Every structure is written in C-alpha cells, then in structure tokens.
Automatic annotation (TrEMBL):
Keywords: Signal. SUPFAM superfamilies: Periplasmic binding protein-like II (SSF53850). Residues 312-323 have a biased composition (Low complexity). Residues 1-29 form the signal peptide. Residues 75-290 form the Solute-binding protein family 3/N-terminal domain. Gene3D superfamilies: Periplasmic binding protein-like II (3.40.190.10). It holds the Pfam family SBP_bac_3. This is Polar amino acid transport system substrate-binding protein. Residues 234-329 are annotated as: Disordered. The keyword Ligase does not apply.
C-alpha cells in the first residue's frame, strides 16, 4: 500500500471518528445550560491541569476502517499549539495544554482505541512536523486553502472566522482595506490571515494609499502585549467567541471572512473556509519513529496530559506560504 493510499484511507476514518465521537458527547449548549443552572448566570471554566477530560468509547466502525499496520505502536501522535484560548492553551500549571482542539484529539484517539501523544509545536512548524512523519496529524487552527490541499489531506470540523482586535479605547473601525492603510498590524507568519492582509496591502498600494506596517508574532500573547502597549494598532487573527474575548479589547465590525476558492484569497467571502485536521499526503510515518531528545508524554483516561515539545527543526517559512513583504518593498 502506498503512503498516499494509506493517508487517503485515514482521512475518512478521522471524519467518521469526529462524527461518532462528538455525537456521543453532550452539546456545548447543554453543557453551558447545566453550568448556568448550577452556578447562576456565570459560566465557570476549569483551567486546572487535572480537570476531568472529555472521553468517548472505541468505535468498531472506525477501527475497522484503519489499514493494517497504520499505528504499529498503538499511539496517535498529534501536533498542537498553545496560546489561543479556547482552542489550545496552557493550564494553570503552565505545562499542560488544554482546550477544544486537545479535546478533539482525545476523542479521536479514544474512538480509534489508541493512546494519544500530544506534541507542542510552534504554529509555523506544523507543516514540517506533519510531512516528516514526526506526527500523524495536526489539529491546530489550520485553515483549508488550495495551496495546502496540494500537500495535505484535511478533515474539517469548524468554520473559519477571522477578526480584527483593537484596544477597548481605540476609535479604529475596519470595514475594508483602506482602513488599515498606514496602520501597524500584527499577524501570524504563514497564516491564511497573512495572505488576506498582504492582498489588502497590495490593493492599498495600487490605490496610492500608505502601505501597511506588518509585525509578525509567533505567540498570540506577544501580540496581545504589543496591542496593550500601543506598539501595534490592531491584531488580525482567529476571532474568539464572545465568552472568551478578554475585556481589554473589542472586535471591529464587518471583519473579513477570507476564502481561497480558485486559489486566490478573497476577503469577506460569504462562505468562509473550514478549519481542519491536516494529514500528510505524500510521506508515510516511518516504521521506526524518529529519535527524540525531549521526553515523551502520553495521555491517559485518568490523568492530565502533559505534552512534549517538538524537536523537529523549525523552518524559516512553510513552502506553501507567501514571502513576507516589508512596507519599503
């Protein structure tokens, strides 16, 4: 069986597992309603490392779809990032990563009757970690784009929503490309929102407007500090739902919802692309996992899951990402 065939067969397995696993759990609305009934109107969130984790039972239908030898050591290795509430972030111990995306990884591993190993990567490193076989999949706020579909298979689980964050006392309102002309904007390198930002900057330049000053931040918390200190005017990234939005910022109205239909990023598309789990298309997992200098941590049904840091070399830039451009260029 070729690597491409093996991975192609794993994708529908993951999609089926997502439906079966999530369907066996209480809905978000039910959980929130239960919390409100127990604690009034306030929704308490447990951010401790030893919180009760969501789990499901093995799915024989999904397990039977796995090709022989898919996981010889019985471990599903998933690349994640931290620093984006509520998707993935460190618990109160600053060591255990918790969040909705770690929960999805847990449910998939449970449904496939596999042990879960979480690998913490910087976001820009997920393509290399996934293609090299260091991990089986990446669940890390990855937008499905035409360029990425050439390298990875995807199993989507939510709609991509982006937004502009500004300080609460800012009078900045962003309704289109002209509103960010001459502004300092923070964005993540190699992200879908970076492509949107570069497209808007190109539009402004063509219209004779001031170029955008782009600051790249690997960590969301660093961008937050820059916003609070006034070093940037706005941060462009995934839009958190209202309950998780911190009180020191507000979202501008009519934030763009980018799409890459036809291979070109188009702000304000009526059909935003999905966020998805990424699986490598061309490179199989090595029969012997690559050597690692960092300790390996596993997730059990009973306790917390403290992930290891990735030891893969960090790329200067993903192969599919556009080159960064300074305002002077």
């Amino acid at each position: 069986m070729t690597a491409r065939t093996r991975r192609a067969r794993l994708v529908p397995v993951l999609a089926a597992v997502s439906v079966l696993a999530l369907g066996a759990c209480s809905s978000t609305a039910e959980i929130e309603e239960q919390a409100r009934s127990e604690q009034g109107t306030a929704l308490a969130v447990d951010t401790g490392p030893d919180q009760d984790r969501i789990h499901t039972t093995p799915s024989r239908k999904a397990i039977d779809l796995l090709p022989d030898g898919a996981f010889p050591d019985g471990v599903l290795r998933v690349s994640i990032t931290q620093g984006a509430v509520p998707l993935g972030f460190y618990a109160d111990d600053n060591e255990t990563v918790i969040g909705s995306e770690t929960d999805i990884a847990t449910l998939v591993a449970d449904a496939l009757d596999l042990e879960l190993e979480l690998v913490v990567n910087d976001w820009s490193n997920w393509p290399l970690a996934t293609q090299s076989g260091e991990v089986d999949a990446t669940i890390s706020n990855v937008t499905v784009t035409e360029e990425r579909k050439q390298l990875f298979d995807f199993s989507s689980y939510r709609v991509d929503q982006l937004g502009w964050l500004v300080a609460a006392d800012s009078d900045l309102r962003i309704d289109g490309a002209a509103d960010i002309a001459g502004r300092t904007v923070a964005v993540g390198s190699g992200t879908n929102q970076e492509q949107v930002l570069l497209a808007w900057d190109e539009e402004n330049r063509a219209n004779g407007l001031e170029p955008v000053r782009i600051d790249y931040y690997e960590a969301y918390n660093d961008a937050v500090l820059a916003l609070q200190s006034g070093r940037i005017d706005t941060y462009f990234g995934p839009t958190p739902p209202p309950p998780t939005a911190p009180p020191w910022h507000r979202r501008t109205s009519r934030s763009p919802a980018p799409s890459t239909a036809g291979g070109r990023t188009r702000p304000r598309s009526p059909s935003p692309p999905p966020r998805a789990t990424a699986w490598p298309r061309r490179s199989p997992r090595p029969s012997t996992p690559p050597s690692r200098t960092a300790p390996t941590s596993r997730c059990s049904n009973a306790g917390a899951c403290r992930p290891r840091r990735s030891t893969a070399p960090r790329p200067t830039r993903p192969a599919w990402a556009p080159e960064p451009r300074t305002p002077e260029e």
